[in-house]
Structure formats: C-alpha cells, structure tokens
Hints:
Layout: E1 9-16, E2 21-27, H1 29-37, H2 43-50, H3 60-69, H4 82-85, H5 95-99, E3 107-110, E4 116-117, E5 120-124, E6 140-144, E7 153-156, E8 166-167, E9 173-174, E10 184-185, E11 187-191, E12 213-216, E13 221-223, H6 228-231, E14 242-249, H7 251-261, H8 267-272
Parallel strand pairs: 5-11, 6-8
Antiparallel strand pairs: 1-2, 1-14, 2-12, 3-5, 3-6, 4-5, 7-11, 9-10, 12-13
Amino acid sequence: MATTNTKTMSMKLLVDTKAQRVLLAEASKDVVDFLFSLLALPLGAAVKLLRKDPSMFGSVGDIYASFETLDAAYVAPGASKDALLAPSPAVGAGASSILGLPEPAVFFFECQHECRGKDGNYLTDMPGVKCPGCGKEMQAKSRFVTTPAQQRKFFKPRPWLCDDRMVTDVSGVPCPCRYACGQKMEDQCQYVPHPQPQAVVPGVGFVQGIVRYTVTDSLAVAPMSSSVALLSTFAALDLSAIQEKTVQLGHAEGLEILRASLQSRTVLTDVFLGKEEPRDTA
C-alpha cells in the first residue's frame, strides 16, 4: 500500500513528565476528522493495514489470508477480491489522507424515465430518492468521474450516444466510458439534495473548524470550549511536571493510533511517548 503523499498534521500534547503519560491533547478539526473517520474504516481495510501483527485481529486474520490465497477458480463470477481485501473507507475524510487508503467511489443516481427539469436531468447521491419530475424512485446508478464541486452542477454524455453511465462536475470533460465514445459530457443534470442528514459531506469532514478540540489519552473528543471541567481532574498534579509537547501525526502515527485504539486505553501515551514500564493505575 502506498504511503507517499499522505497528509501530516500536528497536535499539542499536555504531558505529565513524572508519570510519563499524556493528560490531554489540543487538536485541530483535521485531527478530529481523522479520529472519527476510523469508525468508517472497513474491517478488511483495517486487517490489511495491521496484518503484520498476527495477534491483532484473532481469527479474522485467518479469514483474510484464506480469501487472499483462494484460487480464482473458486471465486464467484463477478465477485471482486479487492472489494474485501482492499476496500475503500465508507467515507473519505481523514482516514484516506493519513493512512494512504484509496478515496471511496462516489456514485449518483438518475431517474430511469429520463425526466427533465428546467436545469436538465434530475440527479441525486442516494438511491431511492423520489424524482421531482415523475415521483418515482431514482435508481439508475452513475459513476462519478471527478471530485464533486461546491456548486453541485453535474454533466453526463448524451444517453442515446453512450449507455455506460458517467457523471462529472466539469462541462465538456471527455467521456471515459468502456466504449471509448469520446463525446463531451455536456448534458446538464439537476442535483436533488439528500433528504436526510449525512455523517459527512465530501470534502468537508465530520466536525466544524470554528473551535479547537481536546482529545484524552483514550481518544475521547470534546470541543475545547466545553472541556474546562475536564482540567479540574488534574488539579492535584504537580504543575512543574506538566509540559507541552507538539507532535506530528502522519502515516506511521496514524497506523499506530489505529492499532492502539483497538487494544489500549492510553493511546496517545503509547504512540507519542513510547511504551514505558507498567504504571500503577489504581
């Protein structure tokens, strides 16, 4: 798996140097987006990333190895081994950029009845949304060619010239279909907003960047404005032993955070301070 060109972020740690543990971390929106994106990481992708540790996933590692080595003659027609062995995250924010994973495929759906509004064909990103034109469910799946634009204007090739459905956000892009039709994608589609709240908006992430966030050693996250009470739990500590430490969070650290989050309650200490002698937690 490629690890080049992955994103690097910084995080400020509040460290108890006597106990050699992280008390709190001050984190930006990007760091928090990464932590929350771990919830959307498919199990197959996590096993692939961490499989060098045979004890990490118990018997799931054997399931992964079994399918990986299964001869193609035994794989069902049309089934993709990569769909299980190297799946993309359910959402692209955070995990893809840090862990070097492929961005998830983006699909849109059209009305199969070719209904047209004043701005062109209707288009949505959720199958089953009701078509504003005829009221029927929009189920015709189209693969998205480029990254979505903020303006939400989309274009496709003329359906009577190409039946391999493609969608783009730049008018005039050559159609990359399997038929190599070469026509420009200029037939505008009208975007139909998703009627339900989404966990993440492409290119936006999970949380807002209007505040900084605190992250505990066990990866509990809260807006810094609501974390003052948390600091009171450290009131009895020797303040002379408290130091700030700025650390970098890149591909290697992201992998270690993923690994430690499945095994430990002291993730930031384990990853950024190194594993020390067992501490008295009583």
